[in-house]
Amino acid sequence: MDAEKEKHDSFSSLKIRNYRLYWSGQAISVSGTFLQALAQDWLVLSLTNSGTMLGLVLMVQFLPMLLLTFYGGVIVDRFSKLKILYTTQTISMFLALGLGTLVITGNVKLWMVFVFALCLGLVNSLDDPTRKAFVFEMVGKDNVKNAISLWTILVSFTRIIGPAVAGILIATVGIGQCFIINAATYIPVLVALSMIDKEKLHTSLPIAKSRGQVREGLRYVWKNPILFNSLIMMAIVGTLTYEWSASLPLYAKFVLNGGAGTYALITVCMSAGMLLGGFMNARTKNASERRAIYSALLLGLGGIIAAVATNIIVIIFSFVLMGIFLLSFANLTQSILQINTAPEYRGRVVSMWSVGFQGSTAVGGPLIGWIGEQFGARWALGVGGIAAIIAGLVGFMLEKRALRIAEKKK
Length: 410
Prior knowledge:
- The chain is mainly alpha-helical.
- About 85% of the residues lie in helices and about 0% in strands.
- Helix 9 (about 225-240) runs parallel beside helix 12 and helix 9 runs parallel beside helix 14 (about 345-360).
């Protein structure tokens, strides 16, 4: 009976109409996002053949998330998340359409890719924390862990579909069509947003504008050890481990001696692991710090195996392993933040997670790209694996410190 209930609970959030609409629209759109991400990586590599330049494009794209997402979180706490999403998704659609047109007409230059990446990063510095906070509004506290798990299942599945389609398109019709198709995938999202029932959203009163709201959010996290610990671990993993856009194209080209199809293949292997990890996480309601720590350690182990492996079966296994525990780590840390954060701080706290997970690529992307170019693609993956293990060890130390402080207060 309990097992049946657990299966039933695995998809409980999809019974909520607003979340079901949003999830369905994003299933199409996020596939396009990953399709475009692979196309952009391969476009840069085709234009430059440089891991360092690939890393610099990533830096430009994610620098706005590093510098501005904190302020984006304040905006999320002040205004309607639904209206913000209308705006950011529409702008992203036109950006993809513009770059795709330049590539197809043969007019694209490297500096144009940099401009596109910068504009997309500016949009994402507001879009990313809005989407994360909006999940809570759609499902409420009781279903937020399940909703995040189902969202990560969606992301994992689209990571398989998007890169696989991109590999086929690049090999047959060219890179530019990937951007055009991605632009079209935003239409279902905009339709889904228009159908959201605002009366059934779990909205909180917007905070009033005042000075020092970013500092206020930082102080709030500092005073809550479980939030602080999760964000520190995410910052380490996000900066050095989660740099697949810099390390995987180099690994595919210079270790496996392949092309865009090979890059797509190893991305699909990792995504398959993420999909498996997503289903595993959707079946549990527990979001503990200790599970997040173990996930970081096992993620690091997978990265190190991939860095040293020469057998293709072992390489595939290692990428699947990384996918499982990257998903688990990301899901658990985000769930911990959502569950343990007061509503008036949620936008700012999830924006810090976004900075750690994606904004840190502005620093880590160029560094990992440079390491891959100077010392080899295996080192790029190996450094990421070591960083994840360090993150897990840091998590253990911070957890023990928090327990000691709690004991002293008693």
